[in-house]
Amino acid sequence: MTAPLSSSTLAPAPLRFGGLEIDVPVVLAPMAGITNTAFRRLCREYGGGLYVSEMITSRALVERNETTMRLIRHHESETTRSIQLYGVDPQTVAEAVRVIVAEDHADHIDLNFGCPVPKVTRKGGGAALPWKTGLFREIVEGAVQAAGDLPLTVKMRKGIDSDHLTYLEAGRIAEGAGVAAMALHARTAAEFYSGQADWSAIAKLKETITSVPVLGNGDIWSADDALRMVAETGCDGVVVGRGCLGRPWLFGDLAAAFRDPNGMVGERAKAMPGLGSVATAFLRHAQLLVEFFEDEGRGCRDVRKHVGWYFKGYPVGGDTRAALATASSLEEIEELLGTLDHTAPYPGEAAEGQRGRAGRPKRPSLPQGWLDSREMGLEARAELTEGEADTSGG
What we know:
- By secondary structure, this protein is an alpha/beta fold.
- The protein has 2 domains: 284 residues, TIM Barrel (Alpha-Beta Barrel); 71 residues.
- 38% of the residues lie in helices and 13% in strands.
- It contains 16 helices and 12 strands.
- The strands form 3 sheets. The chain has an 8-stranded parallel beta barrel, surrounded by 7 helices. A two-stranded antiparallel ribbon has the order 1-2. A two-stranded antiparallel sheet has the order 8-9.
- The chain is globular, with a radius of gyration of 21 Å.
- The N terminus is likely disordered.
């Protein structure tokens, strides 16, 4: 059983990114195929914070790829619009930032230097890129300049692996470039999502970076985890990813916890939804996806990936789960949800804990010779740019 937090624990102040003030120091992490407008809207209905888009590829935005232009759209209810950009070419990233600013697509931009997915790192992007310090500096400096008054932040990992850590140097470079804040997922690319996040790295980054907020990311499965991270690391806020999968009400828990941080673990009021409430949230998610895609079939297909997350620990039989994972209309989903026992209570620990696939440590996929030097020649840069993906959303 986890120990209670100290009674002296204090909540961080609201996050301030440039001219923006985020009421609750909580950020929804960009997740490919998850954090589209539908999911962001659903989470907002439960709590406060900053809700970031799926990863958007800079080149695709500059070239006005149809899928990408749909992904950057925000609903009118999204009052602080946030877009995360990915790219490996300084000029293209800067141009994508200029497009966002000129066409008023967002109120905040984040740069992705944390993605560990092989199709990203093998092109030198995501968590692989900060190893090339000169390239990293050019991208961040160019993006900050292009953003003007729009707050621009960076999200990164500890490094490529335990022998190639980059986060402290990258943090100093980003701070010097004028970013509004930075976030650290306290794992290396090699760790992927396995094992336990190294919160001590967040504390080291916070000690190193003194002029802008530092946010922590990794293994926040509950509001108590978030408060513990702040207490242990001194970070200014938290970034929540897999912990909210199938649990949009976690953002309500987080808002309540940061407003009353001195409550004891297990005693603070938190959402404990019965099966009826979970079914209502699942249907709402499906409806929002249909609205987002403007296609009922596509929206119902997209919500299928969420079935296991929503009903984790609840008395929902395999046949019903399978039927929900193949439903093709809102009417069909509603009928299936109607067969559940809506009086079934919250199942406790069975519904808590890790969500999503943790995976295993793996050797990162990198461009040939990537680790041979911290710098890059012009020819290598050209090859990198040629290989940049032209699609968004991960």
